[in-house]
Amino acid sequence: MILRIVIATMVVLLTALPASAQFDQIMKGLGLGTKDAGLSDVKIASGLKEALKIGTENTVNLTGNLDGYFKNEAIKILMPEKLKTLEKGLRAVGYGPNVDEFILSMNRAAEQAAPAAKKIFWDAIGEMTFEDAKKILSGSNTAATDYFKGKTTDSLTTAFKPIVENSMNEVGVTRQYNELVGKFQAIPFMKSESFDINQYVVGKSLSGLFYVLGQEEQKIRTNPAARVTDLLKEVFGKTK
């Protein structure tokens, strides 16, 4: 009888609190809060998700604008290694400007595709469990980026492919590539192998996106100035 009264009292008290506060109270009552950090699991998860939303939004803003790829030497899309002979041959006979224009157009295609990543990243954040959050928070400085790679690469590839292909047609990548191959093959004794330029640009677009995301994640983890909300300051200030 006494047990029933206690349980009923707890239910009444908890229903008067917001959902997050209810979870906090339950966790504290069960002794499952993160005692060392003085933070509940729900606050840790909320802080991490907030950090990831900010980090992914910054990433998309940085890569999805004009020159987001082209003027970032760390992620700029260059001629594929398999086409280095083609590039060298074309530059040797005066087609350097054409090669440069082609390289620019690949980067423009990546910049147009980048904004599509935001929804996919945020969907992955929404699916994150408390266990995922704790592992990421206590992991390496790029643990969240690694999590995103595992969770979103397939979806991002599917989303990026048509955008990149359309962009490459619009900005002339495909046309320029075919023209460059034609010019190269017109050079005596020169032969070029077939190459999927669309797949290459999609792959490089994603590599660049994850690179920038990793940089943004490290800022939030290691630089207090990058923790732009009170929740981020509290969670990352106490756990790192």
Report the uncertain regions.
Answer: 2-37
**Helix and strand pattern:** HHHHHHHHHHH
- General shape: elongated
Helix amount, in percent? over 70%
Number of helices: 11
Q: Could you give the distance between the termini?
A: 46 Å
If you compute it from the alpha carbons, what radius of gyration comes out, rounded to the nearest whole angstrom? 25 Å
Question: Brief overview, please?
Answer:
The protein is mostly helical and 240 residues long.
Model description:
There is one protein chain. α8 (143-170) packs antiparallel against α10. The chain contains eleven helices and no strands. The longest helix has 28 residues, at 143-170. It is elongated and about 70 Å long. It is mainly α and 240 residues long. The chain starts with a helix and ends with a helix.
Keywords:
240 residues, mainly alpha, elongated
SSE blueprint and pairings:
Layout: H1 2-15, H2 19-30, H3 41-63, H4 84-92, H5 96-113, H6 117-126, H7 130-137, H8 143-170, H9 173-186, H10 197-222, H11 230-239
